C-alpha cells in the first residue's frame, strides 16, 4: 500500500505540474525552534511581526494541526533561461525578480495543491490541508527533511536537479506515509551566493539578516529604504535574484518549460520612464495577477525612484519633479533622494544645486510629513558635501 500511494502521489504531482514530490513527518525538524528563536532574538526579521507572532506554530507543524501524521512536500521548478543579473547593466530598466514576472505563484501552487490533495483524500479517505508560502510553515527545513535538497548558505533551497529555483508547497495529511531520507548539504567551501549579495545581508553562512536583504527592503518593508543601502540596490525594483543566480548548482539545473511560468514580455525589462508615470489604476492594470500588486503603487514607486536615482540619467529629472508632490509620503521622500542623485550629488551631472534648492523651497511651503522633511534635510547635506554639478564647475 505505501508503495502504491507514493506512486500515486508522484503521478498526480507530475500531472498538475510539480517537478518534485517527497514525504516527511511533522517531527522531522527538531532544530527549527531554536534556529527560528535565534533569528527572531537578533531582530533579523525586521518589521515582519507575523514571524514572531506565529513562531510556535511555525517551528512545529503539529502546533498548526495536531492531527497531522505525514507531510507531502511539492516543488515546482521556475528556473530562468538566462542569468537575471544581466539586466542590472541596463540602468534605464527596472529589474523585477524572476518569480514575480508572471502570475502570483501562490495562486498557481495553491490551486495545484488543492486539486492534488482532493484526489489523495478521495483515494485514501484521510483528511488533508494544503499550505503555501503565506502560511506559518517552515517549508525549506521540511523540504530538506524530505530529501528534496538542502538549505544553501543563502538559506534558500538548493537541488542538484533544479539549483536554487524551486517553488515549495505542502500537503498535510492524517495518513501514515513512509518518509523519504533527508537531503545532505552539498555547498562545500563555495560561498558564491554570499559574495554575490549587493548589501551583505548574510552575517554568516546559513544566516540572513532580512533588514539588509533587497527582497525585504523592496517588498516587505513599508517605509523608506535606509539611505546607506539605496545605492547598492541598483535598478532592482521588486526583489533580488543575485544570491540565487550565483549558485553553481544552477548549471546542472533544468530550466522551466511550462509557458505559464515564463515572464510576461512587459515585465522582463520595464523602462523606468514608463514606470515613473504609473498612477494607481495603471499600476493595478499592469500588475493584475502579479505578486507585485500586493505592495501597492506607492511602495512600488518608491522602489522605482531608488532605481531612477541610481541610473545617473538626468533626463528623468522632470518626471521625478512631478513626484515631489505625490500624495504618498513614502513616494515623495524617495523622489527627493532620486532628485538629489540626479542633480549631481552622486553622479556629477544634472540640473545643479541651485535648481534643487528652488524645488526644495517650493516643497517646504506645504510639506509637513517628518520623514519627507528629513529626506530634504539629508539630501541638502549631501549636496553641500558633494557640490560637483555643471553649474559649480562653471563658476
Can you describe this structure in just a few lines?
The chain has 395 residues and is an alpha+beta fold.
Structure keywords:
four-stranded antiparallel beta sheet; 395 residues; two-stranded parallel ribbon; elongated; alpha+beta; 20 helices; disordered C terminus
Output the radius of gyration: 23 Å
How many DSSP-defined strands? 8
How much is the average pLDDT? 92
Main sheet makeup:
4 strands, antiparallel
Q: What is the 3D shape? A: elongated
Helix content: 40-55%
Walk across the major sheet and give the strand order: 1-2-7-4
Order of helices and strands: HEHHHHEEHEHEEEHHHEHHHHHHHHHH
- As a percent range, the share of strand residues is 5-15%
| Backbone structural class | alpha+beta
- Unreliable spans are 345-351, 389-395
Number of helices: 20
N→C terminal distance: 86 Å
Overview of the structural elements:
With 395 residues, the chain is an alpha+beta fold. The chain has a domain at 271-386. The protein is 44% helix and 9% strand. It has 20 helices and eight strands. It has helices at residues 2-16, 32-41, 49-53, 55-59, 61-64, 105-124, 139-145, 192-196, 214-220, 227-233, 242-245, 265-268, 272-275, 280-286, 296-309, 317-322, 329-345, 353-364, 370-385, 390-394, and strands at 20-24, 70-77, 95-96, 128-131, 150-151, 157-158, 166-173, 236-238. The strands form three sheets. A four-stranded antiparallel β-sheet has the order 1-2-7-4, sandwiched between helices. Strands 3-8 form a two-stranded parallel sheet. A hairpin with a 5-residue loop joins β5 (150-151) and β6. α15 (296-309) packs parallel to α17. The protein is elongated. The relative contact order is 0.12. Mean pLDDT is 92; it is low at 345-351 and 389-395.
Amino acid at each position: 500500500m505505501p508503495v502504491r500511494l507514493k506512486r500515486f502521489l508522484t503521478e498526480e504531482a507530475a500531472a498538475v505540474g510539480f517537478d518534485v514530490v517527497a514525504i516527511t513527518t511533522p517531527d522531522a525538524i527538531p532544530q527549527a525552534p531554536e534556529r527560528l528563536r535565534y533569528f527572531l532574538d537578533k531582530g533579523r526579521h525586521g518589521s515582519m511581526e507575523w514571524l514572531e507572532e506565529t513562531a510556535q506554530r511555525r517551528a512545529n507543524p503539529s502546533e498548526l494541526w495536531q492531527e497531522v501524521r505525514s507531510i507531502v512536500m511539492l516543488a515546482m521548478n521556475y528556473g530562468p533561461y538566462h542569468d537575471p543579473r544581466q539586466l542590472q547593466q541596463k540602468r534605464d530598466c527596472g529589474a523585477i525578480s524572476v518569480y514575480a514576472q508572471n502570475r502570483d505563484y501562490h495562486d498557481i501552487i495553491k490551486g495545484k495543491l488543492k486539486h492534488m490533495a482532493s484526489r489523495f483524500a478521495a483515494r485514501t479517505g484521510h483528511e488533508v490541508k494544503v499550505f503555501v508560502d503565506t502560511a506559518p510553515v517552515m517549508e525549506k527545513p521540511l523540504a530538506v527533511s524530505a530529501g528534496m535538497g538542502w538549505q544553501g548558505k543563502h538559506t534558500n533551497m538548493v537541488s542538484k536537479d533544479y539549483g536554487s529555483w524551486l517553488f515549495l508547497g505542502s500537503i498535510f495529511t492524517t495518513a501514515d506515509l513512509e518518509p523519504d531520507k533527508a537531503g545532505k548539504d552539498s555547498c562545500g567551501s563555495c560561498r558564491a551566493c554570499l559574495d554575490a549579495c549587493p548589501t551583505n545581508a548574510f552575517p554568516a553562512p546559513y544566516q540572513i539578516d532580512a533588514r539588509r536583504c533587497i527582497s525585504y527592503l523592496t517588498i516587505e518593508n513599508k517605509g523608506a529604504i535606509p539611505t546607506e543601502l539605496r545605492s547598492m540596490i541598483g535598478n532592482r525594483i521588486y526583489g533580488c535574484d543575485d544570491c540565487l543566480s550565483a549558485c553553481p548548482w544552477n548549471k546542472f539545473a533544468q530550466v522551466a518549460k511550462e509557458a505559464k511560468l515564463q515572464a510576461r514580455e512587459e515585465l522582463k525589462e520595464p523602462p523606468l520612464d514608463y514606470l515613473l508615470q504609473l498612477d494607481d489604476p495603471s499600476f493595478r492594470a499592469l500588475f493584475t495577477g502579479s505578486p507585485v500588486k500586493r505592495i501597492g503603487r506607492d511602495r512600488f514607486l518608491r522602489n522605482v525612484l531608488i532605481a531612477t536615482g541610481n541610473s545617473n540619467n538626468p533626463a528623468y529629472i522632470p518626471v521625478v519633479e512631478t513626484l515631489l508632490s505625490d500624495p504618498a509620503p513614502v513616494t515623495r521622500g524617495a523622489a527627493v533622494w532620486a532628485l538629489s542623485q540626479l542633480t549631481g550629488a552622486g553622479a556629477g551631472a544634472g540640473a545643479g544645486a541651485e535648481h534643487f534648492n528652488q524645488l526644495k523651497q517650493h516643497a517646504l511651503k506645504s510639506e509637513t510629513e517628518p520623514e519627507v522633511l528629513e529626506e530634504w534635510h539629508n539630501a541638502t547635506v549631501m549636496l553641500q558635501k558633494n557640490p560637483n554639478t555643471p553649474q559649480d564647475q562653471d563658476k
